[in-house]
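Long-time lurker, first post. I've been practising inverse folding by hand and with some scripts of my own, and I keep getting stuck on stretches where the C-alpha cells seem ambiguous. Below is the full C-alpha cell string for one chain I'm working on. Before anyone asks, I'm not after the true native sequence, just a reasonable design that respects the backbone. If someone could post their per-position residues I'd love to compare against what I wrote down in my notebook.
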C-alpha cells in the first residue's frame, strides 16, 4: 500500500496547475464517483500486479488486463450508488481524462483507450443478467483472464480488434 501511495504522490507532482484544474473539474461535481474511481484504480493496480507482475506496468498483456479491469471496477462501484448510464458516463470521462493528463505515444494511447472500452463493454454486457448491487470483482477477473488468452498485438493505429484485449509487447 505504501508503494501505491508513493506512486500517487509522484504522479500528482508531475501535474501542471492546468492539469490539476481539469482533474478537479471531473472530481468536484462527483465526489463519491471520484472516491470510488480512485479505489477502483488502486484495486485494479494491485490485482494486475499480483497476476501479471512483469507486464502490468508496461505495454504488455498485464497492462491490457489492468485497463479493462479498471473500467469494470469503476463501473461496478459507481453503479452501486447510481444508474449504469451515469456510471458509464463518469467512467468514460475519468479514463479518457487519464489518457489526456498522462499522455503516451499514439499507439499506447490507442491500446489504453481500446482496453478501457473493452472493460466498459464487458460490464454493460453482464449488466442485464446480474442486478447491479450484486456485482463482485471476481465476475470480471475471470472473464478478463479468458480475454488475455486471445489478446492481440496492436501494431498500427488502423488496427481494430473489436472486443479483444490488445497489447504492444510481451
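-- Answer (accepted) --
I ran through it position by position. Result:
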Amino acid at each position: 500500500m505504501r508503494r501505491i501511495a508513493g506512486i500517487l504522490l509522484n504522479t500528482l507532482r508531475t501535474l501542471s496547475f492546468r492539469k490539476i484544474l481539469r482533474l478537479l473539474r471531473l472530481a468536484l461535481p462527483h465526489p463519491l464517483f471520484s472516491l470510488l474511481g480512485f479505489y477502483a484504480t488502486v484495486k485494479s493496480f494491485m490485482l494486475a500486479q499480483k497476476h501479471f507482475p512483469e507486464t502490468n506496468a508496461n505495454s504488455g498483456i498485464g497492462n491490457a488486463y489492468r485497463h479493462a479491469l479498471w473500467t469494470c471496477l469503476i463501473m461496478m462501484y459507481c453503479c452501486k450508488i447510481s444508474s449504469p448510464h451515469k456510471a458509464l458516463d463518469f467512467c468514460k470521462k475519468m479514463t479518457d481524462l487519464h489518457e489526456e493528463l498522462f499522455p503516451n505515444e499514439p499507439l499506447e494511447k490507442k491500446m489504453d483507450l481500446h482496453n478501457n472500452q473493452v472493460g466498459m463493454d464487458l460490464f454493460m454486457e453482464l449488466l442485464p443478467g446480474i442486478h447491479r448491487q450484486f456485482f463482485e470483482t471476481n465476475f470480471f477477473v475471470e472473464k478478463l483472464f479468458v480475454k488475455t488468452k486471445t489478446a492481440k498485438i496492436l501494431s498500427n493505429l488502423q488496427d481494430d480488434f473489436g472486443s479483444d484485449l490488445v497489447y504492444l509487447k510481451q
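A couple of notes from the structure itself: Residues 31-51 form the longest helix (21 residues). The beta strands are 152-153, 166-167. Happy to go over any region you disagree with.
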